[in-house]
Specification:
Layout lengths: L1 E6 L2 E6 L2 H88 L26 H40 L10 E4 L2 E4 L6 E4 L2 E4 L5 E3 L4 E8 L5 E8 L2 E11 L6 E2 L4 E5 L9 E8 L2 E3 L2 H6 L1
Antiparallel strand pairs: 1-2, 3-6, 4-5, 6-13, 7-12, 8-9, 8-11, 9-10, 10-12, 10-13, 13-14
Length: 301
């Protein structure tokens, strides 16, 4: 076997024997194998690098997702903390209102929860994966919510009590029905000033100046306002809860039947109409239809 080539204008001839040809071929094959082996190793390294890059990308995505979850948790934590602060401030305001109402009602503050720490215990709501921090917040939010409910209920009860008491005081007769004058005759048996016979006097009489003001002794509704026989000009007021008051011998009535009146409102002028010996007010108090001594209500006021 001969290998011929040209170099510097001259022909070169390399003569291979059969054995040399085999050696050359083997060397060539070895070189090719080494090249292919190197290429395979390089490809393996490239594939490994690509796999590592893919893993790094996935890790980065997981890290970014964790950062987003952490930011969301922080945002929710701040929201819970702000809500907790608002609830605490609301409890403070409710406590102040409750103590004020308790004082107004003259009740023992120990019977109410105003000013006391919220009760603790029970199962907290599940918050954000059950972390300790969020679990503690859950307990506090639950306790504060319960405390607000308790205080709202107690304040509602106090308000109802005070309202009922106020209504009772407004409709319960009390005080004098005139601003001037004096009591000339009391409730009970007496000699009638006109007939001289012993009779039950069902009210008290106020002697006073003609035309002076007569006032309602409690809130109520005018049941009657008319001339009524021996009572003369007569006003009857229904106060509810079984109480009725009567005002007789008036010079002039200033209210009409069905009209609502307030305690202290002028309803008539003092006079001597009907069966009277002079200017006076005959004042009666009825409880459940029966005449009672007005002095119990006059003096109580």
């Amino acid at each position: 076997m001969q290998l011929v080539w040209q170099q510097n204008g001259r022909l070169r001839v390399l003569d291979f024997s059969h054995t040399n040809a085999k050696l050359a071929l083997a060397a060539l094959l070895l070189i090719v194998a080494l090249v292919l082996l190197g290429m395979g190793s390089a490809a393996t390294r490239v594939n490994g690098s690509l796999t590592e890059v893919s893993r790094l990308g996935e890790a980065q995505q997981r890290y970014q997702a964790a950062e987003i979850r952490l930011a969301e948790q922080k945002s929710r934590l701040n929201a819970y903390a702000a809500n907790l602060s608002r609830m605490q401030a609301h409890i403070i305001r409710l406590d102040a209102m409750g103590r004020h109402l308790t004082d107004m009602a003259g009740l023992d503050p120990a019977d109410f929860s105003f000013g006391s720490a919220p009760h603790q215990g029970g199962r907290a709501p599940v918050l954000l994966g059950g972390s300790r921090e969020f679990s503690d917040l859950g307990y506090r939010l639950q306790d504060f919510s319960q405390a607000i409910d308790e205080r709202n209920l107690e304040i509602s009860q106090l308000a109802t009590l005070l309202l009922n008491r106020q209504l009772t005081e407004q409709v319960r007769p009390g005080g004098h029905p005139v601003s001037s004058g004096y009591i000339s005759s009391f409730f009970g048996r007496r000699s009638d000033p006109i007939s001289g016979r012993r009779m039950l006097h069902k009210g008290v009489d106020y002697a006073g100046r003609r035309g002076s003001e007569i006032v309602a002794v409690a809130d109520g509704v005018v049941a009657e306002s008319r001339f009524y026989g021996g009572f003369g000009n007569f006003v009857e007021i229904n106060h509810g809860q079984g109480f009725v008051t009567r005002y007789a011998h008036n010079q002039k009535n200033l209210v009409t039947a069905g009209e609502r009146v307030k305690r202290g409102q002028t309803i008539a002028l003092l006079g001597s109409t009907g069966r009277a010996t002079g200017p006076n007010l005959h004042f009666e108090v009825l409880k459940n239809g029966s005449a009672v001594d007005p002095m119990a209500f006059i003096e109580a006021k």
